[in-house]
């Protein structure tokens, strides 16, 4: 025997599955990561008590100013990102929602991702060294370069590593600092031929750069639009495509001679 439901009761009962479905959709994990500005590190100085760039086999000059590589911090691969998290990030300038696969493209486990990022960092460091020594016309059999940067993975510090090596060995080519005493930050991959590649997350990296005192930000030319989107006031963008053109831009900025490109 079934009891007869009144109309209000029937509506309430029918609505329960809909409410449950909606709640499940709202709080279900989504394939996204939430990113924010991360740490920056001066490649011309020390990181956690160790020199970032150590060179032997050639005279090394004292440097002034800073060359700061930049990072983003993203929610870990095993963190559940739900619809409320995504909506909250849409309304904030210090966070961005990114597809999880674009942040962690290398696997599902934390160990797999860490191993992949370490491999990418090593490859990036090797390419950065080759690019810098090639630009300076130095033989890598005579000059030994060691690069150490704790707790950072991936290839996006390549350009800054190359610039740091050039500044320590040659400066601006006339004995002056490549930075002109400024705090210069940036991002970009680099290959052994000195070509700069895009990296992603540049809008957040500009915020990290400004937070840590930078007045100039080097950005892969293809990502100028992204860098302008949330550009902090007082931070100058310089688009870059190669190590050679980047050095030329910094020398022009320091000396006031020649043109400095802009986004």
From TrEMBL:
InterPro entries xrefs: Lon_proteolytic, Ribosomal_Su5_D2-typ_SF, Ribsml_uS5_D2-typ_fold_subgr
Top-level taxon in the UniProt lineage: Bacteria
Family matches, as SUPFAM superfamilies: Ribosomal protein S5 domain 2-like
Coiled coil: none
Pfam families cross-referenced by the UniProt entry: Lon_C (PF05362)
Domain Lon proteolytic per the UniProt entry, residue ranges: 154-240
Protein name (database record): Lon proteolytic domain-containing protein
Lineage summary: Bacteria, Bacillati, Actinomycetota, Actinomycetes, Kitasatosporales
